[in-house]
Design brief:
two-stranded antiparallel sheet, alpha/beta, binds S-adenosylmethionine, globular, 28% helix, Rossmann fold, single chain, seven-stranded mixed sheet, 6 helices
Length: 205
Amino acid sequence: MARMLVEVIRQMGINDPRLLAAVAATPRDRFVPPRSAARAERDEPIPIGHGQPTSQPSLVAQMIDALVLTGTDTVLEIGTGYGYQTALLAHLADRVYSVERYADLAEHARENLAAMGITNVEVVVGDGTAGLPEHAPFDAVVVSAAAAAVPAPLAEQLAEGGRLVMPIAAGVADLVTLFSKRHGRLEKRRSLTPAQFVPLVGKHV
Ligand SMILES: C[S@@+](CC[C@H](N)C(=O)[O-])C[C@H]1O[C@@H](n2cnc3c(N)ncnc32)[C@H](O)[C@@H]1O
């Protein structure tokens, strides 16, 4: 099943062998509600409850690719959902902290990740716009919901030289944007792609 998604992602021009191997090793049907398992091989979003989707795998891959993970990174993910992106990050980083605002989604993600034998992830229930100061600084931050600007705590908790990817609300579409931190300031690097994300809901938006 994952082989078809690997091919879609490769055809988008993503060639990082570690990322392609992570996609190959992550059966997406284990990260969607059972009623949607048969659709999991399609490169499309799938509803996971509370009006939230799990993003389409090619978009997830684009966002992760831009983080340029080396295997030694500590990563903060905001918006765990069912844990598909979290599983890919876990393959590519040393440690992943993931924050989800819905407790039942976080619990599904924990179960899904445990079933895959993934142990270098901590899923936290809470408002991800505040980040996780107790585990900062982060080498990379990925936000899976859109807001007009990067929440200030996430910029603060990013390590010097770190990368942050987030959809920035821009009228009809969101623009998935790569930032990096230089001289203590968050700087925009480039827009990756237009997309439609659910809103980031929290105190710091
Ligand atoms: C597009 S979905 C998650 C996709 C997920 N990364 C995946 O790979 O399937 C966005 C998620 O962000 C969560 N979310 C929105 N605002 C949040 C916040 N402030 N803190 C934590 N999670 C939040 C939603 O509940 C939802 O599960």
